[in-house]
Specification:
CATH class of the largest domain: Alpha Beta
Largest sheet: 5 strands, antiparallel
Strand content: 15-25%
Number of strands: 13
CATH topology of the largest domain: Heat Shock Protein 90
Strand order of the largest sheet: 2-1-5-4-3
Length: 449
């Protein structure tokens, strides 16, 4: 995200530089184009003058041509007309409106107009021979080009100053706005760390900082759910620790006259507590250690778990139905076995005698799916908060256990990027579905017999 912010800033800096580069370039192109047009127009006028003077000299003689040129000069002919008639023998000026012969123009006839170097304004013209003796330079001064060039430079300079000033103002405002938005992110994180878990960043813009805010909000949502889940487990563990101790204290007090029986009750309570503590330590340790990842045949694990709990199901007269299709995932087999065993064990505990329990495994385009359905208590018997579904895993007077089975299931699923869903069955009971995503699910293999 920092890299995106950097790219975002560089893009705007490059845009400003591009504008600063385009303006002089566009101005230069405009000047060159205008100069070329003015030069072509002047060349055409010069060629027309040469043709007219040549015809006039041939018909009426050089004296008439000189009179026409003098008349033009006396009337102040427009269009930047420049001309000079010399006698090449003595260099005397016979007619013209120029103070001197252009230094860079040769004193020989030229077949086409040429530009006089070093003249200001720009001068373009031709040299022709009149009456086979006199040299005439006729041309045009391109007087408007210098003014146009100066004006263009002024305009470009003004726009450059405006763009630079606007860029500085924009940069200043952008920095101030970014600082305020970053301060809002910091304030939100501080408030969240102080216990205000519902606080979020109010930033809906679609720029990089807006995307940062959206990701921070998503992270805070996830953290809030994780914290609620951990608090629930902590409350559940505290409840489960108090329960055995309270029951044992009551029972021991009732058997105060029988020390041996009281000792057995105390030992049983300690065993229960140690079992619970082992479960808590296992869950905690599983969060920090690396998984031993391998390709796990989910259908084979389900078949083994069904065989393992077959006798328990028979003893409770519960029919254990199986629908196992080839499905593979990437994970730690021992943890997957424990997840499945806890779900099946929990379902058997809450299934009434004479009911059925269905174990299903299949693979599809969304990954791999494990489903366990029973006829026990559904969601209606528990609070609506999803995390409180763990309450069904708690030990009760009728069902023994540590209460950590489903907590362990959720933790194992989390480590395998899997989702656990709980849903009521239409005919009564509960269905627990564990969805392994395509990232954690392997490609289906051949059917097993």
């Amino acid at each position: 995200m920092i890299e995106q912010l950097s790219r975002w800033s560089w893009r705007r800096a490059l845009l400003l530089l591009a504008l600063l580069a385009i303006l002089p370039g566009a101005a230069a192109l405009f000047l060159l184009t205008t100069r070329d047009q003015m030069m072509r127009s002047a060349e055409n006028e010069v060629n027309a003058d040469v043709a007219a003077l040549t015809r006039l000299t041939d018909v009426d003689g050089v004296v008439t041509a000189i009179e026409v040129l003098e008349d033009r000069g006396a009337r102040g002919a427009s269009g930047g007309l420049a001309y000079l008639l010399l006698d090449p023998e003595n260099g005397a000026t016979l007619a013209g409106n120029m103070e001197r012969w252009p230094r860079s123009i040769p004193r020989v006839p030229t077949g086409k107009p040429i530009v006089a170097a070093g003249e200001s304004p720009v001068l373009i013209g031709r040299v022709m021979l009149l009456d086979d003796h006199f040299l005439l330079f006729t041309g045009r001064r391109i007087e408007g080009f210098a003014a146009l060039r100066d004006r263009t430079i002024q305009v470009v300079g003004g726009f450059t100053v405006i763009i630079l000033a606007g860029g500085l103002i924009f940069a200043f405002l952008s920095i101030r706005t970014a600082e305020k938005r970053i301060a809002a992110i910091e304030a939100t994180l501080t408030a969240f760390s102080q216990g205000r878990r519902s606080v979020r960043i109010e930033d809906r813009r679609r720029d990089p900082l807006g995307r940062v805010s959206a990701r921070v909000n998503a992270l805070l949502d996830l953290l809030r759910e994780k914290l609620r889940h951990h608090e629930l487990i902590a409350e559940q563990i505290a409840h489960e620790l108090r329960g055995p101790v309270a029951r044992a204290a009551t029972a021991i007090q009732a058997r105060s006259d029988d020390p041996a029986q009281a000792s057995l009750l105390a030992r049983a309570t300690i065993d229960d507590l140690l079992q619970m503590i082992d479960g808590v330590l296992f869950i905690t340790g599983m969060r920090i250690r690396d998984l031993k990842v391998e390709r796990v045949p989910l259908h084979e694990v389900a078949s083994e778990i069904a065989e393992l709990f077959g006798e328990v199901a028979e003893s409770k007269e519960i029919e254990l139905e199986r629908s196992l299709h080839p499905a593979f995932i990437m994970g730690e087999r021992a943890l997957i076995e424990r997840l499945m065993a806890n779900l099946v064990d929990n379902a058997l505990k809450y299934s009434p005698p004479g009911s059925s329990l269905r174990l299903r495994v299949r693979a599809d385009a969304d990954g791999a799916l494990l489903e366990i359905s029973d006829k026990g208590q559904g969601l209606a018997n528990f609070p609506e908060t999803p995390g409180m579904l763990l309450a069904r895993g708690q030990a009760t007077q009728d069902v023994a256990g540590t209460g950590l089975g489903l907590a362990l299931v959720l933790r194992i699923a989390e480590r395998h990027d899997a989702q656990v869903h709980f849903a009521d069955r239409e005919d009564g009971g509960l269905t627990v579905a564990v969805r392994f995503t395509p990232e954690s699910a392997g490609a289906p293999g051949p059917p097993t017999t």
